[in-house]
Design a protein that fits this description.
This protein is an alpha+beta fold. The protein has helices at 2-18, 70-73, 115-124, 152-159, 238-245, 262-267, 286-289, 293-313, 322-334, and strands at 88-99, 130-132, 149-150, 162-168, 174-181, 189-201, 206-221, 227-232, 234-237, 274-278. It has a domain at 70-152 and 188-313. It is built from nine helices and ten strands. Strands 1, 2, 3, 6, 7, 8, 9 and 10 form an eight-stranded antiparallel β-sheet that branches. It is globular and about 80 Å long.
């Protein structure tokens, strides 16, 4: 059996050596030439673009070519450190009203980019919390204590007006009436009330003004159409509002203002606001003890002047008699006689020198 297998293997190897591979042939195929002229075909069927509701196309800039800064839309406010209570002196709280009718406050009421629309969008997106401005309760006596949160729907219910619509029958006769809510309009907001603290920081050696809260003001209208005043519709924390203010571009090329945000406007005090209340033990506003509008303006100016005088006199240094004494001692040592001071003609009386310490108001 071994001999038979060896002989079989030898024959198979011999056959493999004698087998020659087949030759490969390559066939060249020439393309057919078509001499027929190609006619241009026009498709008269218009292209229909179907917009699916689930696919939203986002455009970074508006279609009219107006450029918007992406840096401003993604900006975040820089943090402001909280003051140390041990370094605070002369702590007063003030409430001011920003009137949108004043030309100096027109930046807050720019058509299409009003401040109230940005605030409402921030509340709807959950970036800003709204608080009820209704006072009279122990935990929120003045309405600005940020204690009672409000939902966006509840806030919009207060921002909208109600109108009385007559019900008519088929013959046009009045059979009744009903009240319906009108759409919200930014014109309903007539101003803003800010709550701010003014204090002297001993560590920084300067008077600081810190905004705490902002409240949109709306008109209070009676059923007969008479307006009796304004009131805040809600209170917003200024720290949360800065997240929205930093993304609002208020640049004005006509005034050489570029890359200016709404946050810069508040930090640089680029607005005009009138004092309506100063912190006092009774919690009274100016209009509570001044009924005449002219007297209210005078009282607001008096408080404003008192605050400005404190800021001006916070660090007013004057020289003392030590310098005159040292000069006299040096002249006596060198043998020089001290010249008598010359009397100036018609010299007005000099004010009393300040000691350099902040004045208590």
């Amino acid at each position: 059996m071994l001999v038979a297998s060896l002989s079989t293997m030898a024959q198979s190897k011999k056959r493999s050596k004698t087998k020659t591979p087949a030759k490969r042939t390559t066939k060249v195929v020439k393309p057919k030439t078509d001499t027929t002229a190609i006619a241009a075909k026009k498709d008269s069927t218009p292209v229909v673009v179907q917009n699916t509701p689930n696919k939203v196309v986002s455009v970074p800039d508006s279609d009219d070519g107006y450029l918007k800064s992406e840096i401003m839309t993604k900006a975040r406010p820089f943090p402001i450190p909280d003051p140390n209570p041990n370094n605070i002196k002369y702590y007063h709280r003030y409430w001011r009203d920003i009137d949108l009718k004043d030309p100096r406050n027109q930046k807050f009421n720019t058509p299409g980019a009003t401040l109230i629309e940005a605030l409402l969008k921030g509340i709807k997106d959950g970036r800003i919390n709204a608080y009820d401005a209704t006072g009279g309760i122990p935990e929120n006596p003045g309405g600005d204590a940020f204690t009672v949160p409000m939902s966006y729907d509840n806030l919009m219910g207060r921002m909208r007006d109600t109108a009385t619509i007559d019900k008519l029958d088929k013959d046009g006769n009045k059979i009744g009436s009903e009240r319906k809510l009108n759409d919200f309009s930014p014109d309903k907001v007539v101003g803003y009330r800010i709550k701010e603290d003014v204090y002297f920081d001993k560590r920084l050696s300067r008077v600081q003004t810190r905004i705490i809260g902002i409240a949109p003001l709306i008109r209070v209208t009676l059923t007969n159409g008479d307006t009796i005043g304004t009131q805040p519709v809600c209170w917003l924390k200024y720290k949360q509002c800065r997240l929205v203010f930093a993304t609002m571009d208020v640049s004005d090329p006509d005034k050489n203002l570029y890359d200016v945000s709404m946050d810069d406007m508040f930090l640089q005090r680029q607005f005009y606001a009138k004092i309506v209340e100063e912190s006092n033990p009774l919690g009274r506003r100016i209009k509570d003890y001044m009924k005449d509008p002219a007297d209210q303006d005078k009282e607001a100016q008096r408080i404003e002047k008192k605050l400005a005088d404190y800021k001006a006199n916070a660090w007013a240094y004057t020289t003392t008699g030590a310098l005159d004494g040292s000069e006299a001692a040096a002249n006596a040592k060198s043998g020089k006689k001290q010249a008598a001071p010359k009397k100036a003609a018609n010299t007005p009386p000099q004010p009393t020198p300040s000691t350099g310490a902040p004045v208590k108001q």
